[in-house]
Amino acid sequence: MHKLLSSLIDVLNPLETHNTGSVVIRGIAYDSRDVKEGYAFFALPGTHTDGKRFIGAAVDAGASLIVYQGGLDNIPEGIAWIKVADARRAMSAFSAAFYDRPSEKLRIIGVTGTDGKSSTSYYIWQLLRSLGYKCGIITTVLYSTGGDAVPNPLRQSSPEAPFVHAALYDMLLEGCEIAVVESTSHGLSPRTARLADVAFDAGVFTNITHEHLEFHGSFENYLSDKAELFRRLPDYGAAIINLDDKQSAYLAEQTKARRLYYSASGNNKADLWAKDIHGSLEGTELELLTNSLSKKIRLPLIGEFNADNVMAAVLACKEITGKSIDTIIEKSMELKSLDGRMQAIRCGQPFGVIVDYAHTPGAFERLFPFVKRFTHGRIITVFGSAGERDTEKRPWQGSIADRYADIIILTDEDPRLEDRMGILRDIAEGCTKKSEGKDLFLIPDRKKAIEHAFGIAKKGDLVLLLGKGHEKSIVMADGTIPWHEAKVAEEILASMGYKI
Ligand SMILES: CC(=O)N[C@H]1[C@@H](OP(=O)(O)OP(=O)(O)OC[C@H]2O[C@@H](n3ccc(=O)[nH]c3=O)[C@H](O)[C@@H]2O)O[C@H](CO)[C@@H](O)[C@@H]1O[C@H](C)C(=O)N[C@@H](C)C(=O)N[C@H](CCC(=O)O)C(=O)O
């Protein structure tokens, strides 16, 4: 694919331009290591370094255009360059234009919230497919441009704008009508502008609790960044809101779109509400109600919180397709859960093992009381907290686990450049009822931590492995190591003599 720069230049709102006549653009990169012949290189300011330091490398790799913000000491000769006010914002607009604004030709459903975004997105995608629609999906866990979903190749949930628009473009080429885009607060934030030029038709809000305050600065900013999805909806669009969340009124005020509410707590002011939710480690039974319908269903999904996710998905599908809610609810009984989300590991061992991605206080508050109800023995939990991310949540995670778990084993999640033991000590501050060495263990090496958990687990106990879920790596100070929590758990069980 290629385009003349002259057909794209206006969307950049250039402050200064140089050599921009008859330049051909063949792709877009924000990392010099990804630049190929004819690419536009966006030099982005970063938290660790500045993209402008890599302009030389981008030129050597064949870049035909450099876009940057702020001052530049060595302006390269013999190449086109454009100075803009905000390089990330410019990259978003440029990416949308380069790929012919694919989001305007698809019906786009954005899903935001602290917890449940990926599952809800996946349920919407599955429901749409079972209703006969061809659709794509971009989530933390998986990704599809029209065919079967494959694991997300990136470590980002909301990827950078060039990836998003390229994926939406591929979806159109493959004949998709609808796309489901998991929309994180990072992606929606004007500071990253990753989703700034995606034309959403419907937005789903799952819930909001404490997370990513290292990035947003305050809960108010975090909430406001999430609300960006709702501000951006057109008046003919649909805003699907969890009525049970404290921020539902705020979210509703932020949009001119039609508002639809769901409630898992049985609030009949909602458009769709649930009652008699009974979960077990096998699935979830509940009754779904609207003003004109009541339907008892069984979801093959573990975790009562899935009632919220499924109701959100049902309403989103109804709004985007116009199909009857009855038909959509019927299809929800065949939904599959995401890899690493309440995934039971069964290798014949006498204790239970569940792998889940829960890594926020909100997710802990939902998960622990649920599993406690079905566990006759002890709860042994293994988890950590990400380095260089929200530090305030660490003791909070510890105190929730302290209330419900009998034994806590703290371990690496993604330490990054932080001191590994320091992170574990921060979490341990919240575990006031436990004593180190007795029912609290700090074992940074995640494999050793899981081995320890399995080693002490007895018949009837439940071992909860939290925080990694589907993720395929652990980010350490000196690089990334491959990881697959479910496989590691199975391998350790196999070494103990338990095999499927
Ligand atoms: C903390 C954060 O947001 N980091 C993002 C940021 O990285 P950074 O600021 O560290 O970049 P940097 O290392 O300083 O480099 C600056 C620039 O120089 C470039 N560079 C660097 C080296 C080189 O040799 N050549 C080169 O061109 C880099 O590609 C970058 O564009 O800019 C990068 C490029 O745009 C992003 O990929 C990166 O996201 C990383 C992967 C990340 O982990 N982001 C997380 C926090 C995130 O966005 N998470 C949310 C999930 C939220 C949720 O769970 O709800 C998400 O949507 O994924």
Automatic annotation (TrEMBL):
Pfam families given in the database record: Mur_ligase (PF01225), Mur_ligase_C (PF02875), Mur_ligase_M (PF08245)
Q: Cofactors per UniProt?
A: Mg(2+)
The question of whether Transcription regulation is a record keyword is answered with no
Give the metabolic or biological pathway. Cell wall biogenesis; peptidoglycan biosynthesis
Tell me the residue numbers annotated for binding ATP: G113, T114, D115, G116, K117, S118, S119
Where is this chain's protein located in or outside the cell?
Cytoplasm
InterPro entries (UniProt xref): Mur-like_cat_sf, Mur_ligase_C, Mur_ligase_C_dom_sf, Mur_ligase_cen, Mur_ligase_N, MurE/MurF_N, UDP-N-AcMur-Glu-dNH2Pim_ligase
Mur ligase C-terminal domain: from which residue to which, for each copy? 340-469
Segments forming domain Mur ligase N-terminal catalytic: 25-99
EC nos: 6.3.2.-
> Coiled-coil regions in this chain?
none
Q: Which UniProt keywords apply?
A: ATP-binding, Cell cycle, Cell division, Cell shape, Cell wall biogenesis/degradation, Cytoplasm, Ligase, Magnesium, Nucleotide-binding, Peptidoglycan synthesis
Q: Record-annotated residues binding UDP-N-acetyl-alpha-D-muramoyl-L-alanyl-D-glutamate? A: S32, T184, R194
Record-annotated Mur ligase central domain positions: 111-316
| Residue positions, PTM N6-carboxylysine | K226
For molecular function, the Gene Ontology terms on record are: UDP-N-acetylmuramoylalanyl-D-glutamate-2,6-diaminopimelate ligase activity
Superkingdom of this entry's organism? Bacteria
PTMs per UniProt: Carboxylation is probably crucial for Mg(2+) binding and, consequently, for the gamma-phosphate positioning of ATP.
On whether Cell membrane is a keyword of this UniProt record, the answer is: no
Role according to the record: Catalyzes the addition of an amino acid to the nucleotide precursor UDP-N-acetylmuramoyl-L-alanyl-D-glutamate (UMAG) in the biosynthesis of bacterial cell-wall peptidoglycan.
Q: Give the matching HAMAP family.
A: MurE
Q: Which family does it belong to?
A: Belongs to the MurCDEF family. MurE subfamily.
Record NCBIfam families: murE, PRK00139.1-4
Would you tell me the protein name for this molecule?
Answer: UDP-N-acetylmuramyl-tripeptide synthetase
Q: What is the lineage of its organism?
A: Bacteria, Pseudomonadati, Spirochaetota, Spirochaetia, Winmispirales
